[in-house]
Amino acid sequence: MPSSSQDRRIAVVGLGFVGLPLSLSYWQQGAEVFGAENDPRLRSELERGVTHHLESDDGQPIAAILSAALASGRYHLVGSAAEATRQADATIVTVGIPHGPTGLDLGPLRGALQEVVDAAPPGHLVLLRSTVPPGTTRQSLLALARARGRNVGEDIFIAYCPERIAEGRAFREFREMPVILGAFDEASLARARAVVEVVTRASVTTSASVEAAELSKVIENVQRDVNIAVAQELARACEPADIDVFEVIRLANTHTRVHLLEPGPGVGGFCLPLALSYFLPFAQEHGVVTPTLLAARRTNAEVPPLLAERALSHARALAGDAAPRVAVFGLAMKDYSNDARLSPAVEVCETLRGLGAEVRAVDPAVPPQFAFQRDEPAWAIEGAHALLLLSRQTALESWLEDVPRLGAMHPGAIVVDARNWLPHGDELLAPLGLAYWKI
Question: Which of 78, 166, 262, 303 could be 266's S-S partner, Cβ–Cβ 3.0 to 4.6 Å?
């Protein structure tokens, strides 16, 4: 149950990959929740209990949790941040920051924050949980409150809490992942801690430096991007030596101070590929160059086109004068996800199409959104000159357990395994006359 009667009503602004399971986590703990979503299509789906997210809690899918919340009378969906804020004791903002041709666009986040501050009743807490460039809370939220004549720490409370969950484990990690809080005053820090502890059972580390809290999240993402680049370069070195990179990583990770990540088709989603965009302006503002981070980002960005070109080289040799046909299993940005935002798998498909290939992609978890996408594995592999395994999904894994089905591919076709999907793929595919390459 919420820690005090003061914080029994929680508004959550933005019901995406973070905001939806977060809002439901508060409902699970007895809070009355006001979820604000300004996308009419998404809000309409949620009102019907429909969500494509692949989250679950204790075996219960998120759609069932959403339906129970809606039926309870304690979970309300509204169309604006202002409407949600006016009815709540505290507002948590989880609005994402789009990345366009000119860089990060803070416009949607700033618009939401303005709505919240303008609507916040006296004594309201505004807790920002979006990943932001360092300085955003001070420059956007604190400055906005002061410009409206609000006394921060007295009649409005402001804090920042970086989001750290992994998609697919949201409910559990909202409870179990250690939390960081930053605020400009002790009163705001105390209010924010009380609201966070409605859900979390893990440690809460506080900081009087909001910028340090913001930067901690950004560098967490940058660090993972760099670690994946290490794995990608290790994989490139292992291949000509005929050494299994996944075996190398397994052995190295037996060391208690080593945690190598695994290579794959690239780095996707809105967190890791964009992390450097959040960090570089901060570093440049202080006259710091970051050659290591830039090199790692380039390494990861190079993987999808290299993967596409290698698969296409084999496919073209088989296709002759016809357009090579390439099947793709998995469009999500990582395994067991429905998120195709900035997905390296999608980039591979687009690169292949741009080079003249016919692409047939299958991912039962990703909502239909691409012209080259269908839900039928047999359609994808029929006569294919190459099959790329780019992100795992349970249904596709089950389908692939019957390996002889791949005999429907073109004789001599290649299976490119970018996720260690078939650890002994060469042995499994050789009887079918298929080639195998594991990244």
Answer: 303
Tell me the pLDDT tens digit for each residue of 184-228: 999 999 999 999 999 999 999 999 899 999 999 999 999 999 999
**Strand partners of residue 206:** 181
φ, ψ (nearest 5 deg) of residue 438? -105, 130
pLDDT above 80: residue 2:
no
Number of H helices and E strands in the chain, helices first, is 17, 18
Domains of the chain: 5-208 (3.40.50.720), 211-439 (3.40.50.720)
Task: Please work out, in degrees rounded to the nearest 5, the angle formed at the alpha carbon of residue 112 by the alpha carbons of 37 and 117.
Answer: 120
DSSP letter for each residue of 177-216: S-EEEEESSHHHHHHHHHHHTTT--S-EEEES-HHHHHHH
Q: Between the CA atoms of 214, 215, 217 and 220, what dihedral angle is there, to the nearest 10 degrees?
A: 180
How is residue 33 written in tokens?
């929740």
Report the chain's terminal Cα–Cα distance, integer Å: 48
pTM of the model: 0.91
For 71, the token pair is: 């039926």
- CA gap 250, 254 in Å, rounded: 7
Q: Residue 302 and residue 232: Cα distance in Å, rounded? A: 10
Which two three-digit tokens encode residue 300? Answer: 């990861």
Strand-pairing partners, residue 77, are: 35
Decide if 90 contacts 11 (C-beta within 8 A): yes
DSSP summary character for residue 140: I
Helix (H, G, I), strand (E, B) or coil at 11: strand
pLDDT of residue 102: 80
Closest CA to 387 of 375, 400, 374: 400
pLDDT digits (tens, 9 = 90+) for 376-408: 999 999 999 999 999 999 999 999 999 999 999
Nearest alpha-carbon partner for 324 in 345, 346, 351:
351
Q: Residue 133 corresponds to which tokens in the numbers above?
A: 């460039």
